[in-house]
Design goal:
single chain; Sodium/glucose cotransporter; 20 helices
Length: about 475
């Protein structure tokens, strides 16, 4: 259970976020204010928002578990992050001018202007499906931590997080999302660093020496990943990560809507540059945290016993609730909530924007309250999806991840056709969309091991949340640490 001081930290954080939303909501008058912050956002704030938005509770809960426990895990996940600066450069050169060339709130208006309404509706429908379902995964991941900390059911924690997120998002729009993301970035990054420093300060060199050697290898250069069974080889992760990040940051409404909110092309470019520079250090922070937890499993039998037989994604919640002292415990739980809410708020606002503009085809100065009601409706849908995830287990996680991954490549292909192939018409674009989506879906279903994306974050189809931590896995980690 949390102490009063821990609860005070959480209440202060939640009160700050809601207060920001209320203050911004008072100044909003039109749909452009609500969905694009009147196109007045500066590069520094946008860069922080893009960075925070991509890191969800799935990342802060799942990534350390992947690094610490998953067979073949460790620092090799960082290979994926090397693609981020390259992807930001590609977006700036090829996609940014096209995205900002059309009016409106939805980036899929570009597909309409270039290929026609059919292509626009196909892309919008794919976004609504994948982002709406993935919200349930985010809510479920964050509710694991809150339920452990407050000794309440996962369902109760899920609805509590969902209600708070929906309230401040539906009220304040994207401006509230962006400014709250700045607070949330500081909290999630700072909380992770404080927890890591606490571990090192408490155990010193013995903790560092206990980290298994195989989890310290960041690059896998001796395998191609093609026909050799290597799941996390360097070149597949770099190339796959490049195309996935270009699609996610440039062709996904939840991210690209921030680009549309910039006050100028130069501000949008600088925001993407800041994200490209800061993303790797942020990911490295929670990967190092995972390494320290791997060392803790080796030197602390009692902690290892608590993890045995539990879902691997319970590693971080168990550590927070049983190992951290008062104050730091509340800070890290607030960091997990910040990570979840920074992804939830942008998804809700972007879902509302696409629903109104691309589905209902309605844009007017009266769309402010319509936008709020639509965001509220998507929030309720997300909570229902989260309950389904909590009851169904790993299967639905894999299904949602695979559906999302099936659409990212085809969506990117349509945008690139629009930019790079001016002679391609709407019929060809629609046909290629449906064919490539079908082929992508078929290849995903036939894969034995797959790196995919869940929400605004990276996750694994066979991620730690998809299985339980076997006693042998913990014993292997402990024996590997001792063998050093």
């Amino acid at each position: 259970m949390l102490s009063r001081f821990d609860l005070l930290i959480l209440i202060t954080y939640l009160g700050t976020i809601v207060g920001i939303s209320v203050a911004i909501a008072r100044k909003q008058r039109t749909g452009d204010d609500y969905f694009l912050a009147a196109r007045r956002m500066r590069s520094g704030v946008l860069g922080c928002s893009i960075l925070a938005n991509q890191v969800s509770a799935v990342s802060l809960v799942g990534a350390p578990a992947f690094v610490a426990l998953r067979p073949g895990g460790g620092l090799r996940w960082l290979q994926y992050e090397l693609a981020v600066p390259l992807a930001m450069l590609a977006i700036i050169v090829f996609l940014l001018p096209a995205l900002r060339s059309v009016p409106g709130w939805s980036i899929y208006r570009y597909a309409d202007s270039r290929f026609g309404a059919g292509t626009r509706r196909a892309l919008a429908a794919a976004f609504l499906l994948t982002r709406g379902l993935s919200l349930g995964v985010i809510l479920y991941a964050s509710s694991l931590v809150v339920s452990e900390a407050l000794a309440i059911s996962v369902g109760t924690a899920l609805f509590a997080i969902g209600i708070v997120s929906v309230c401040y998002t539906a009220l304040g729009g994207i401006a509230a999302d962006i400014w709250s993301d700045v607070v949330q970035l500081a909290l999630l990054w700072g909380g992770t660093l404080v927890a890591a420093i606490y571990l090192v300060a408490r155990h010193g060199a013995s903790l560092l020496d206990a980290i298994p050697n195989e989890r310290l290898q960041p690059l896998i250069l001796d395998a191609s990943g093609i026909g050799d069974g290597a799941t996390f080889a360097f070149w597949p992760m770099l190339l796959g990560g490049f195309f996935l990040y270009v699609s996610y940051y440039g062709c996904d409404q939840s991210q690209a809507q921030r680009i549309l909110a910039a006050d100028s092309h130069a501000s949008a470019r600088r925001a993407l540059v800041w994200n490209g520079l800061l993303r790797f250090p942020l990911t490295l922070s929670y990967c190092i945290f995972g390494l320290l937890l791997a060392g803790l499993l080796t030197i602390d039998p009692q902690f290892a016993a608590l993890v045995d037989g539990r879902p691997a994604d319970s590693l971080v919640p168990i550590f927070i609730t049983t190992y951290l002292p008062t104050g730091i415990r509340g800070l890290l739980i607030a960091a997990i909530l910040a990570a979840a809410m920074s992804s939830i708020d942008s998804a809700l606002n972007s879902l509302a924007a696409v629903t109104i503009e691309d589905v209902f085809d309605r844009r007017s100065t009266q769309s402010l309250w319509l936008g709020r009601l639509t965001a509220l409706g998507w929030g309720l849908f997300a909570m229902v999806a989260g309950v389904a995830v909590s009851r169904s287990g790993a299967g639905i996680l894999e299904i949602i991840n695979q559906i999302g991954s099936a659409f990212y490549g085809p969506v990117l292909a349509v945008f690139l056709l629009g930019v790079l192939a001016p002679r391609v018409g709407g019929r060809a674009a629609v046909a290629s969309w449906y064919i490539s989506t079908g082929l992508s879906r078929s290849s995903l279903l036939s894969s034995d091991s797959l790196i995919v994306r869940s929400n605004s974050s990276l996750a694994l189809s066979d991620s730690p949340c998809a299985s339980r931590t076997s006693p042998s896995a913990v014993r292997t980690a402990r024996s590997s640490g001792r063998s050093r």
